Amino acid sequence: MKRLDVGLGERSYSILIGLGLHPSLKDQVQGRSVVVVSQAPLAGHLQTLKSFLGDAPKSLTCFELPNGEGAKNLGELERLIGCLIEAGLGRDGMLIALGGGVVGDITGFAAACYQRGMDFIQLPTTLLSQVDSAVGGKTAVNHPLGKNLIGAFHQPQAVHVDLHWLDTLPDNEMSAGLAEVIKYGVIADADFFQWLEANMAGLRAKDKTLLSHAIATSLAIKADIVAQDEREQGVRAHLNLGHTFGHAIEANQGYGNWLHGEAVGAGMLMAAELAKSRGMLDDEQLMRLYRLNKAAGLPLKGPAQMTPEQYLPLMMRDKKVLAGKLRLVLPKGLGQAVVVSDATEAEILAAIAAVQTANH
Ligand SMILES: NC(=O)c1ccc[n+]([C@@H]2O[C@H](COP(=O)([O-])OP(=O)(O)OC[C@H]3O[C@@H](n4cnc5c(N)ncnc54)[C@H](O)[C@@H]3O)[C@@H](O)[C@H]2O)c1
Ligand SMILES: [Zn+2]
Known about the structure:
Bound molecules: nicotinamide-adenine-dinucleotide, zinc ion
Catalytic activity: 7-phospho-2-dehydro-3-deoxy-D-arabino-heptonate = 3-dehydroquinate + phosphate
Largest sheet: 7 strands, mixed
Cofactor: Co(2+); Zn(2+); NAD(+)
Enzyme class: lyase
Radius of gyration: 20 Å
Distance between the termini: 39 Å
Structural class: alpha/beta
Pfam family, one: DHQS_C
Helix content: 40-55%
InterPro entries: Dehydroquinate_synthase (IPR050071), DHQ_synth_AroB (IPR016037), DHQ_synth_fam (IPR030963), DHQS/DOIS_N (IPR030960), DHQS_C (IPR056179)
């Protein structure tokens, strides 16, 4: 069992990573009314969780969200809050998110709003949520006009990662999670990037020792960045490498049609091409990123029908736009990132075109 701490003063919490659930989870729900939010593909894991918790909670109610990004909306939030009221949860109740980022984001937001804030625990079951969304306290639902536009910062009380959960995760969802793992190497840790180059096949084959190392390393980087900059006024922006391009892809394709991680994978290549054109990345480093994305099973281009010009207005809608200026995270070599706010339209179009016409 690996343990990491997210140091945020009185809002600090632990992340536990291992095979099987840690007994402290039982203590965290002891004597409390609990609502577990989950989805149909997690039915087996939900049964295991219920048996594990046994009679520790005072009561346990299950709430099933529909599958997919479309479930992260205000209507489902209202239905979930209705369930909390009917289950008689007071502010001393406990919400548990058992699922991927969709379940985690809406559950976290319900916990932030319900009775002006209550405790919740993240049990992330996708690789993406285990290395990224379950930690850091960003919670949100989507509006029809844009993704994650209604949300709050609300940290969980604990995050428990059981590596067994990944056994049932489809391959394309594994690849999507690996995009975020690669991102950590690019922005913060050249040695980790190199380790990923050596171990990508084993990770995709779900080798538990390798996964445990990859998840713990990713989360240690994220926890460190969040502890420095909880509300994204500075260094936390580095976690958005590839995301401004990626969000344009997701919006253009309709949310959920391209997986978030797939869009981020292609977006990182666009950011890397832009960095190369500015002399911040050399040819060999750029090639290594293409090769690692390929080894992770990620797309090496954006959607074929999407022209570079279609990216720009969607990128300008991104939350990272400040005073009309697009702020882009770019890799500086492998293992470091910088934010630039002077990228010209011509540079951005050229970087997208470079990815779309690259031959790998
Ligand atoms: N809050 C944050 O900081 C943050 C960061 C990154 C992404 N996100 C959000 O996360 C969401 C994407 O999350 P995701 O990639 O985990 O997708 P997801 O939550 O939609 O899960 C993907 C699919 O896999 C299924 N699933 C989950 N765990 C499974 C398992 N163990 N076995 C089999 N099936 C399983 C789910 O039911 C779903 O159908 C997006 O909404 C994105 O905005 C949030
Ligand atoms: Zn992401």
